[in-house]
Amino acid sequence: LIDDRSPIGVFDSGVGGLTVLRALRAALPERRFIYLGDTARLPYGTKSPESVARYSLQCAEALVARGIGCLVVACNTASASALGALRSRYAQIPVIGVIEPGAAAALAASRSGHVAVIGTEGTIGGGAYQRALLRLEPKVRVTSQACSLFVAMAEEGWVDGPIAEAVARRYLDPIFSAADTLDGAPYGGPYGDPDTLVLGCTHFPVLARAIRAVLPAGVTIVDSAASVAAVVAREAAMSSAAATPIGVAVPGSLRARGHVQWLATDGAQRFARVSAVFLGAALHADEIEIIDL
Amino acid sequence: LIDDRSPIGVFDSGVGGLTVLRALRAALPERRFIYLGDTARLPYGTKSPESVARYSLQCAEALVARGIGCLVVACNTASASALGALRSRYAQIPVIGVIEPGAAAALAASRSGHVAVIGTEGTIGGGAYQRALLRLEPKVRVTSQACSLFVAMAEEGWVDGPIAEAVARRYLDPIFSAADTLDGAPYGGPYGDPDTLVLGCTHFPVLARAIRAVLPAGVTIVDSAASVAAVVAREAAMSSAAATPIGVAVPGSLRARGHVQWLATDGAQRFARVSAVFLGAALHADEIEIIDL
Lengths: 293, 293
What we know:
The structure is a homodimer of 293-residue chains.
Chain A: E1 8-12, H1 18-27, E2 33-37, H2 49-65, E3 70-73, H3 76-89, E4 95-97, H4 99-109, E5 114-119, H5 121-126, H6 128-136, E6 141-146, H7 148-156, H8 162-176, E7 196-199, H9 208-214, E8 220-223, H10 224-243, H11 252-255, E9 260-264, H12 268-279, E10 288-290
Parallel strand pairs in A: 1-2, 1-3, 2-9, 3-4, 5-6, 5-7, 7-8, 9-10
């Protein structure tokens, strides 16, 4: 159950998780959030699973100490490497990662049973999406591709235009090469091209337009940020129903609707600047508290 | 003085410093080296100067504990943020960074007195090259540009071809826009376009071909890896002359000519794979010792 008076804690290695936060705020506009970007140690995607798990536990500890009622692991690498450890240590609150919701949304979207997943080297190399998809649907076929340059492009703000599309084409053409279009082609068998693409990195939703531009028509893009927000919103709704509040109204001013407390482990200036691409709104460096983990 | 029986220690946040190591091995084929990539905490380029200085001192400590006779800071960000602290703490050995040699080489190459510098956000934002150039030549004009995507491209091995050139053009055209060619144009004044480009990040030398392809003819590329190797070789030669060895020949087998001991703080597999782009030769993961800092 998600205590609806406590803020929801969200962490990522940096700014990528802001796409998840943005989706969460849209789905749950009444809630307060605490966002932690572990910018001193980004990126997680190239680090070993052991290091990522250790860092994740430290991030979670900082958020739990600030009284969160739910933890969202808004980082695919951390979700892949640390979700089990986080759920064991913080059994008192819901801990939600980005991989399971994305995998479930992909299976719901796919008609052919062939799903493509793109992410960082760490996420793809670790095989977490592949395992999550197979666990939910043993007959699914999965094609995966690490797209390391997408992270740097997103942070540089080069999110569309010829360079973004050329990079997207270089990564994605080999996956979707056989199909110019899915609509007219004989399609739907387990050996056809994938008809669903999971954006398995929280940075990637900001590149969705460039990615869309190079995909065959008819491929569904699954944004794991939107998928995780939907899961959290569903859990929150169930919790509210279960809690059956008996007239103890919390004043609006105290609830501070939609308020976000910003935490980072390094580089407030850069965090504020780069976050604009991900949040779609400017953030000031002095709104960000720098903490040591 | 550089003790010529001790290995030369070289560190970087990751694999970029391998361009410096490669230049050092070419300049000093008799020497042994210890290379440390602080891969658990890469990249330094987006981190605060305080964090970079702290990490650099830890890297240096690990190398000094292994008996190095000279420390090469093969990372522009670390050279910018930590050289003073390293020289204070390890006054007993020469500590050589990449910024001063690159700046000196750029001034020697430039006829116009206008030098362009490219690097990571941290290096360019910190202004270290700008300061080093002005300290050596107060009348120099400096234009600088952060090229964040170059690091990811180098590590992905996308070092030439249309995407590398398109990215290089997007970063460099604004700097060199006015000059189609330097040869025929009225050139040489302090207000002309730069005639020298410093590759102020150890990753960038592997992209030299793509960078060259988009530069106006006549621009000199200064590779700071080659510049630092030249400085170390000169210091080593002076040290050997000063030491005047009196017949104590060290057997070749013991000197282990050109041997490199490899250290990293995380991810031996990835280090080995990506290093091939930088070293021009394959490295095996089991040759790399993982250490904790």
